[in-house]
Amino acid sequence: MITKDEAKYKRELEFFKEILKDYLDDIDILIWLALRDDGRVSDTDLAKIANVSIPTARRRRIALEEKGIIKVRGFLRFDKLKLASADVLIKLKPGCSAEAVRDFINKALEEPRIYEISEYIGEYDFLFRFFEKDFKTLKEKIEEFMLESDVVDHYTILANIHTPKLFSELIEQENERE
Question: Per the database record, which ranges form the HTH asnC-type domain (predicted)?
């Protein structure tokens, strides 16, 4: 029998079942989807969503966390705080040493304005996600960071003005409460 919450995730469940079939079963996927939408969801609610007992939901959630498959985190809601954020696509200079690239990444890991780093294959080598109090300061700090590096060939700043999918569930829930 499909629960109300399971029906909510039915479309995504079918999609993720195919992709994750070698790693996660339906219960694990439903637990992840629920935690993705609300990292504070209780084990009792996880049990209802996955249609399992509370001890099973708790055991499965803990196993996913211990294996490093899921990580529940808190996100700053830039929109709520009226902060500026941008994606910065970075192309490295041809022939730069692996050590110089490591140093650049380590510097980025220490920079509190950078909240995500992704390595790419293709036209660009990295994506850094920055945030700051306003767009003027954001642009200045990005340029300062990039110009201090001797491995950056060029970069493109894409100012983020709205992120509808990441917080769509939260926004819907807030609108329902109002």
Answer: 24-97
